[in-house]
Design brief:
alpha+beta, Outer membrane efflux proteins (OEP), 4-stranded antiparallel beta sheet
Length: 387
């Protein structure tokens, strides 16, 4: 069953595609199907409901007592904080909702980056599998020719054994590359929720991306840390308002049955006498606000440095890819053609011939790795830009 799975994956690499999944289609599917995005959406909903609970009035107290010992009087008592407290609780709740939205954008950006990286890794793995497949086919033919030449007495045992051993090693690498390609494809399908990805776009260097300096405010991590500062500042205002008086209003007849209605009401005010505890709460909130501001500044600095590093990586990788396209790949093709002609003419032994083939395919593998490095850096810059 494992071999069938690998063969099925390899068939996708070489057969014409009737359906094709682009990177953006994979990202859109992941944003629609992945539970991480759904969880972030539910967190935003929870915070929105929390805004309605910001008033947070205590339950009214209804009591019955006999203040004169002659009859029972029914009373009600409602306590509440100073109105400023409720206004600032509402502000904190709204800031926390915005913080949840910033967290949602951060989760979506993380998922987009992860899916794009998986897509790229799958492209690289499939490209490498195709290269190993071409090499496997060539080395099998070389081993067969070497066996015939050895049987005819035209080749010694050492060269025959070397050719067969190289063919066996390449075949193993071909199978391993096929397994890795199938594994990446399955992982990509799991993240996108697409049971059939079809064919992916062929691996190609991303030489058209922009290298402009991205706005740090567009980075979801920076936006989240800045919104956390807003929440902390709202918490400071709320902590200060706790030092304001609280009130209670009630109704209870504490006199005779015929006591006038005007004298049956009661009112009280809570004096914030213990100023130390309120001051400590406000100071703690201020310290947390300063800590949040320091975290935001640190995040901006980290992202800024990472952007600069990524842009350097892009410049280096782009130069390497351009060199590979301009110089290395044409030389490798010319070297391969010359090696095949020389071997057919008997001008080179199998040891040097196989060593030359190793150099040719090493150039091809290096090209794929340089394309991977370039495209990965491009994806990283998009991630840092919040795209």
């Amino acid at each position: 069953m494992k071999q069938i799975s690998i063969l099925a994956g390899l068939t996708i690499l070489i057969c014409p595609a009737f359906s094709q999944t682009t990177p953006e289609a994979a990202v859109a599917a992941a944003l629609q199907n992945h539970p991480l995005v759904q969880a972030a959406s539910f967190e935003v909903q929870a915070k929105k409901h929390g805004e309605k609970a910001a008033l947070n009035l205590p339950n009214p107290e209804i009591n019955a007592e006999s203040p004169t010992g002659e009859f029972y009087a029914v009373g009600v008592l409602q306590s509440f904080e100073f109105p400023t407290v409720y206004a600032r609780q509402k502000q904190v709740a709204r800031a926390e909702t915005d913080l949840a939205r910033a967290s949602q954008r951060m989760s979506e950006n993380d998922l987009r980056y992860l899916v794009r990286v998986l897509y790229l890794e799958t492209q690289v793995a499939e490209s490498q599998a195709r290269q190993w497949g071409e090499r496997d086919t060539l080395y099998r033919r070389i081993a067969q020719v070497a066996a015939r030449q050895f049987a005819a007495g035209e080749l010694d045992f050492l060269q025959k054994t070397l050719a067969e051993n190289e063919a066996g090693q390449v075949n193993l690498q071909h199978r391993a590359a096929g397994q890795q390609a199938v594994s990446f494809r399955r992982e990509l399908a799991a993240y996108t929720g697409l049971p059939d990805l079809g064919a992916l776009l062929p691996l190609a260097p991303d030489t058209m991306g922009t290298d402009g300096q991205p706005l740090l405010q567009n980075n979801p991590g920076v936006a989240y840390s800045q919104q956390a500062v807003q929440v902390a500042e709202r918490q400071v205002g709320l902590a200060k308002s706790r030092a304001l008086p609280n009130f209670s209003l009630g109704y209870l007849n504490q006199g005779p049955v015929n006591t006038p209605l005007d004298y049956r009401f009661r009112a009280s005010i809570g004096i914030p006498l213990w100023a130390g505890q309120y001051s400590a709460g406000a100071n703690a909130a201020k310290a947390e606000a300063r800590a949040a501001a320091a975290h935001a500044e640190t995040q901006i600095q980290r992202i800024s440095l990472e952007v600069q590093r990524t842009q350097t990586d892009i410049a280096v990788a782009l130069a390497n890819v351009q060199y590979q396209i301009r110089e290395a790949l044409p030389h490798s093709r010319a070297l391969l053609d010359a090696a095949l002609r020389m071997r057919e003419a008997g001008q080179v032994d199998y040891i040097n011939f196989l060593r030359t083939l190793d150099e040719v395919y090493e150039i091809q593998r290096n090209y794929v790795e340089q394309v991977r490095a370039l495209n990965m850096a491009r994806l990283r810059l998009r991630y840092l830009s919040g795209n």
